[in-house]
Input
Amino acid sequence: MAIAIERNAPPVRSGSFGPQWDMGDEEINELIEVIRAGKLGRLGGSKVDQFERDFAEMNGVNYAQAVTSGTAAVHTAVGVIDPNPGDEIITTSITDMGTIIGILYQNAIPIFADIDPATGNLDIQDVEAKITERTKAILVVHLFGNPCPMEAYVALARKYDLFLIEDCAQAQLAEYGGRPVGAWGDFGCFSFGGKHMTTGDGGMVISNRADLSERLKWFADKGNPRHPIYEHYYLAPNYRMTDLQGAVGIAQLRKVTAAVRHKQWVASHLNEVIDGEEGLSLQPVLPEARHSYWAYGFHVDAALMGASATQFAAALQAEGVPANAPYMIYPVYKYPVMAQQRAYGTSDFSWAGEAATAIDYGSLSLQDSEKFLETTVVMPMNPSYTEQDVADFSAAIKKVSDYYRSKLSA
Ligand SMILES: Cc1ncc(COP(=O)(O)O)c(C=O)c1O
Output
């Protein structure tokens, strides 16, 4: 912003950008089939069934359960592992609330471990330090599409006999050790809202757990086993995806690899620019990992740059480039539902009773989680970015960096 105001110079970029998804006749043709069949729901239709099969195959797993959102996907995974009220699930506070909601709805307790301030992903040592006899699961998030070290998490979960859930909402087609994320843990959870592919809203849970595959299916369908005679086994929501969404999902899935490859290409160019600017730094990717870049994050060192991440992102916006900072207003533990544990009307009845109220989330402070939000700029990635778009991003990043650093040395 400062540049445009002080120099009265035109922004680097004034035009708009292409669509967030490649969408057209393929989706329309799939949808027409559903409407002609006259079965818009998944029960009696065929599209969600096919979407699940295609999704499982693409990720190399045996089971895939379609649901209505990424939030529903995580809730379903938590519902399948069936914690007792007060059981603990260790996770990160630098994430969408959708990671946490399912834990609260199952009356379990989120325990927030700190993160690596460079990647924004959980710090595995802090995760291990937070394991207690109440711990039921570890829930990792591959932030922005950057994979966590899954071999180490599988070993940790085995060592303590815990479930391992992967929140892959931002990380479809990211890989660790040559295997897609989501296929490492007991359950992998995906979102089809504003992510690499879309069904409007939607989600998927994948798994190789044959012993839990029926519960996975039934938990997303009111605990109803769909036997000829109507019955319900346990408390569970209705998260059934419609066949309209399933139809779009089939077509989108055919395009998602190309979308991710394109974002990886954009990121490789941005990496070169960020790496060359004093005061900016990359978010590192593990050597065994392949980032899928749902978003592109980088760090601003305020002392070297003479600007905070928030100022830097605002200046990029003023140059016509999409960028945000902070990624979220504050870590999840500061949200009212956590800090005050008000869940049900005006009552003091917390989401997990006394075990939860014993935790004072409001005064929690995870230093590296807070630092990550202070230093990170996030750029949304788009499969339709052109070479010109990427050149404009690079020019804007250089221009904003030069501007702030020159003010610093003046
Ligand atoms: C890491 C993460 N988990 C869960 C979700 C929830 O997904 P949905 O919005 O589809 O419910 C999101 C969505 O932004 C997310 O980014």
Notes: The pocket of pyridoxal-5'-phosphate is lined by residues 69-71, 95-96, 98-99, 141, 167, 169-170, 191, 193, 201, 203 (CB under 6 Å). Residues 43 and 228 are 13 Å apart (CA to CA).
